Amino acid sequence: MNTCFFIGHRDTPADMYSQIASGVEKLALHGVTEFVVGHYGAFDRMAAKAVREAKWQHPEIRLALLLPYYETDTSKYGTGFDGIIYPEGQETIPKRAAIIRANQYMIDYCDFLIMYVSHIGSNTREFMDYAQRRFQHTGKPEIINIADWVN
What we know:
Layout: E1 2-8, H1 17-29, E2 32-37, H2 42-54, E3 62-66, E4 83-85, H3 95-109, E5 112-116, H4 123-138, E6 142-145
Parallel strand pairs: 1-2, 1-5, 2-3, 3-4, 5-6
Helix pairs in contact: 1-2, 3-4
């Protein structure tokens, strides 16, 4: 199963939605069947929406929610998720580092990474650097920075 993970700035502008949706469509057409998204900010909301809409044309794709903290009530994240990913060993990670660890886990696991990185000094940029180093050693994930599509 090919997996795509999303990472972007929580203040991603709404006009980036079409690029996110285009990236999802391209990957779905190339056999990506699992999409994983977090739940912190505009980018994550747009990514989840794009996958949900793509499921109409590609019913084989699945949308999973990445949780950095263990939770029993996930109803606050809305509907439309086919599953939840809670990384193994995550319960031992201090709360202040949980989001970082969960994102690194997914970068290590995924085949494709759709990102929106426009701010140089940001955590999102640090994740892109981490993914690029990972790609040099393993050949994955393939990184798609949709910010490059609008320049």
